[in-house]
Write a structure and sequence with these properties.
By secondary structure, the protein is α/β, with parallel strands linked by helices. The protein folds into two domains: 260 residues, 4-Layer Sandwich (Purple Acid Phosphatase, chain A, domain 2); 98 residues, no CATH class. The protein is built from ten helices and 17 strands. The strands form four sheets. Strands 6-5-4-1-13-14 form a six-stranded mixed β-sheet. Strand 13 and strand 14 form a beta hairpin. Helix 1 packs parallel to helix 2 and helix 5 runs parallel beside helix 6.
Amino acid sequence: MRLLHTADWHLGKVLCGASLVDDQAHALEQLVHIASDFRPSAILISGDIYDRVVPPPEASSLLDNILSMLVREVKVKVIFIDGFQDSPDRLSFAARLLENQGVHARTTLTGSVAVELMDEHGPVRIYPVPCADLPTLRNFLNRPDLIHPSEATRALVQKVRAAHPEGVRSVVVAHTPCMGGQPSPSEPPIPPHSWVQPALFEGFDLAALGYFHKPQSVGSKNVQYSGSLLPYSFDEAGQTRSVNKITLDVRGRLRVEPAPINPRRLLRRLEGKLEDLIATSFDIPQGDYLQIRLTDEVPVADAWGRLRAIFPNLLSVEHPRMKASLPLELQRPEDAAFFSEFHREVTGQAPSLSDLVLLGELSATPEPGGP
């Protein structure tokens, strides 16, 4: 049985004011090609398909296009759940109609849970476990005693495992952080009482999980995070992203092969003095998304404008080492020499004669309330 596992697309993501929809489309086109070559029985999407509850129209259009390509052209089933960032109602729109076309949306705790696939060795049951808040889980499980979300998740997964027939291969799809996982800065913060132990998924041949943006296994090879579609923070610059090509043999043993996703633009973080960065700009790919940290210790005139003229995809400029050039207690520019030095630091030029004349006029102006 071949399965393709992906998660955390975050369609509609905005990074420092820049929409990443075109970058996400570029990445998802690669996923379609990977699926076409690998020919899986199903694609598993483990939540956080959208980046927010109300996604922009272009994100919804992108999801529609990709699902259509996967189902109509690649002819593969798609099974997905919601994540912490998704709206279950939006993702479940026309779910019954889409199920007949091979798109299985599981975003609520009602109705059928398992999706059964067949290969030459027999059935494989896929159990998509949707996200739900604590009151919903208490009501569904009839467990008013549950206090923490992790307890409710554990009870739900145990309920699924208990109903699974013995001797049949099993896969659980969920969106939850496991203890021992390596988080990334771009993930939505989740309180500690929502995390679960990876041992919760013992008994399943595969736990195809979402939440962690860095691809990894936690606890055992059977607990897999495919990672996010792209790096979504400059703290993740230089990291690679992939989808998992998974093969289950007749005994449910796994073979996991990451298939890399090549981004349309890389995230780069540069550091240095403004003039040095400008002088070496020909060595830096101008199409990539950039965050620049200036190491100048004095004010720099129009740093953003000068850098943006060279790097069209500059998204952030930081100047953490800049020291104040003016004492805070100085209220009036009465010293012409000090003013001239300050003017040169800020503008790069000495003040003109008219500037100095105006300074003299300001210095001669009496203080409010003075004689």
